[in-house]
Amino acid sequence: MDQNKTPLFDAIREYIKRKPAYFRIPGHRFERGISQRWKDVVGEEIFKFDLTETPLLDDLHNPEGSIKAAQELAAQVFGAEHSYFLINGTTCGNEAMIASTAFAGQKIAIPRNAHKSALMGLIIGGAVPVYLQPELSLEWGIQGGITPQSVEEMFREHPDCKGVMVVSPTYYGICSDLRAIAEICHAHDAVLLVDEAHGAHMYFSKELPEGALEQGADMCAQSIHKVTGSLTQSSMLHIHSKLVDVGRVEATLHIVQSTSPSYILMTSLDLARYELAVHGEEMIQNAVALAKQARERINAIQGVVCLGEELLGNAGIKALDSTRLIISAKKLGISGFDLLSMLEEDYGVDLELADFLNVLAIVTFANAEEEISRLVAALAQIAEKHRGEKELENQIQLPPLPPLALGPRETFFAQKEEIPWKDAVGEIAGEMIAPYPPGIPVIYPGEVVTQEVMEYIEGYRLRGRHLHGPADPGLSVFRVVRG
């Protein structure tokens, strides 16, 4: 296939050239109905691309023309048999993978560090989760990988499990041993689903870990917008397997995708695929080189660490995406949360996230050396100001997984009631609690609140730490299932 082609982009340009008398949705009629205040800042040409289905522009839910051709080009680039444009983000890709793999009452293995879209997929399809616990790096307080041994053990206990989902790479760039996990899954006639939201770029550099499809995954969902150049909310779903019911996946995508898909988002996917196909190795090599330079310069700062190869082989970590900079100033007594604030407020350096011990910087092909220098200089100045502080220690230990009383779908539709949190032991949780860090849920909807879970969460609550999930973040009350 000719990867220089951009079929959807070209089809829209041709349509615009025809200057039709337009009586379709959307109502702004190309650029004419857009606020002049907005056009004065950004120009007007992009608004002409905000169109809807026409015979020339194709239909995402029944592609036969330009969208079909664009998706086929994407499949070739990523080594898939089928690829689909997603305009509801990787969220809808995860939902479609889960809901099309295991149906009501069937089992599917889900990692505890999965994005909340995994829970949505369980609610939509009605499958019963078998939870897998990722390993933890206690020294650095971050999530590790899912080990092949834990997957093998899961199948011994649940031989009827239809599939396994793994998040690889994680937000921190941590990769599990997908090749070994894929072999285990296929030995049990189960499919391997990979939330590869953060890994689309890995297919274009030999210096990065292999992509999920290259390691035997049956399906994966990628956020093309995160690091490879499309617009926010645009993603792709790829299938490379004879075990997957393609028709079922497509039917599920009809449920979880908008019936009014954005042609601007789809065009951005078409063009991002073109750039990756034609210039991808150069693009991603630029990111790898910038990240390598940053890591070396940061590690030269006394008291600051940018993690790298020392993580490999520990906590289920098979490989690491080197374009993710996990930076810690714990030796200077500075928490990740404080370091993030200092960098943003005092130095104008905006990073992706923080946990108790670390901050995360994401380097892409579009970063510049000047930005790396600003980050390094800011860290050096912060380090100079905090010499001699007492080193922070991490004390993260996860409690045992609580028993599952109700499936996520049953729990979602069940009657719920707010009770005092102190009375929650023995009750069926109606909502999730994920103490942060490490951001791994210790209680999911439908699970029984155990004494161990209660004590663990209390440790966070009493220290004023962030609790993600509950409607009352202060946890004076908690929603439980009633009736």
Structural descriptors:
14 helices; 15% strand; single chain; 483 residues; 5-stranded mixed beta sheet; 4-stranded antiparallel beta sheet; globular; alpha+beta; Ornithine Decarboxylase, Chain A, domain 4
Q: How are the strands of the largest sheet arranged?
A: 1-10-9-8-6
Major beta-sheet overview: 5 strands, mixed
Overall mean pLDDT: 95
Output the structural class.
Answer: alpha+beta
Alpha carbon gap, first and last residue: 58 Å
* Overall shape: globular
Strand tally: 19
Q: Which architecture of one domain would the CATH scheme give at its second level?
A: Alpha-Beta Complex
User: Rg to the nearest angstrom?
Assistant: 24 Å
Beta-strand proportion: 5-15%
CATH topology of one domain: Aspartate Aminotransferase, domain 1
Quickly count the helices.
14
How much helix, percentage-wise, in residues?
25-40%
Q: What top-tier CATH class of one domain fits best?
A: Alpha Beta
Low-confidence stretches: none
Structural features, described:
The protein is built from 14 helices and 19 strands. The protein is an alpha+beta fold and 483 residues long. The protein is globular, with a radius of gyration of 24 Å. The strands form seven sheets. The chain has a five-stranded mixed sheet with strand order 1-10-9-8-6, with helices on both faces. Strands 11-13-15-14 form a four-stranded antiparallel sheet. Strands 2-3 form a two-stranded parallel sheet. The chain has helices at 7-17, 36-42, 66-78, 89-101, 116-125, 148-157, 178-187, 224-227, 246-256, 263-299, 336-347, 369-385, 408-413, 451-462; strands at 82-86, 107-111, 128-132, 136-137, 142-143, 163-167, 174-175, 191-195, 219-222, 235-239, 305-306, 319-320, 324-328, 353-354, 358-362, 416-420, 434-436, 466-468, 477-481. The model has no long low-confidence stretch (mean pLDDT 95). Among the domains are: 285-385, Aspartate Aminotransferase, domain 1, CATH 3.90.1150; 408-481, Ornithine Decarboxylase, Chain A, domain 4 (Alpha-Beta Complex). A hairpin with a 4-residue loop joins β4 (136-137) and β5.
